[in-house]
């Protein structure tokens, strides 16, 4: 089982939260926003990548279900 956000320090939570918001942000950008060094941001991102990636990955099953439902609706109504 992975790390829980509640197990992190406040600074680590801030870094993980910022990285979740926009995974394209550089370590330097997140460092400025969280008042941390870029090397610490890199360390936290590496150590807790499961928490950062977990957030965006949780939408995939929902999207798959929506696509299946949309296709079923379209088929029933002769839209395909």
TL;DR of this structure?
The protein is mainly α and 80 residues long.
Could you outline the blueprint of secondary structure elements for this entry?
Elements (H helix, E strand, L loop, with lengths): L9 H12 L5 H8 L3 H10 L1 H9 L2 H17 L4
Characteristic key phrases:
80 residues, 70% helix, elongated, mainly alpha, 5 helices
Plain-language structure description:
With 80 residues, the chain is mainly alpha-helical. It contains 5 helices and no strands. Helix 1 (10-21) crosses helix 2 and helix 1 crosses helix 4 (49-57). The radius of gyration is 18 Å and the shape is elongated.
Query: Strand tally, please?
Result: 0
Order of helices and strands: HHHHH
Form type: elongated
What number of domains?
1
Rg from C-alpha positions? 18 Å
Number of helical regions: 5
Q: Give a short account of the largest sheet.
A: none
Q: Which strand-content bin applies to the residues?
A: under 5%
Q: Helix proportion of residues, in percent? A: over 70%
Amino- and carboxy-terminal Cα gap: 43 Å
Content-based structural category: mainly alpha
Average pLDDT: 88
Provide the low-confidence segments as ranges. Answer: none
């Amino acid at each position: 089982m992975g790390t829980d956000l509640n197990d992190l320090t406040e600074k680590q939570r801030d870094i993980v939260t910022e990285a979740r918001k926009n995974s394209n942000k550089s370590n330097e950008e997140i460092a400025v926003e969280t008042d941390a060094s870029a090397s610490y941001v890199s360390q936290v991102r590496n150590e807790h990548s499961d928490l950062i990636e977990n957030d965006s990955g949780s939408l995939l099953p929902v999207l798959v279900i929506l696509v299946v439902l949309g296709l079923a609706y379209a088929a029933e109504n002769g839209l395909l």
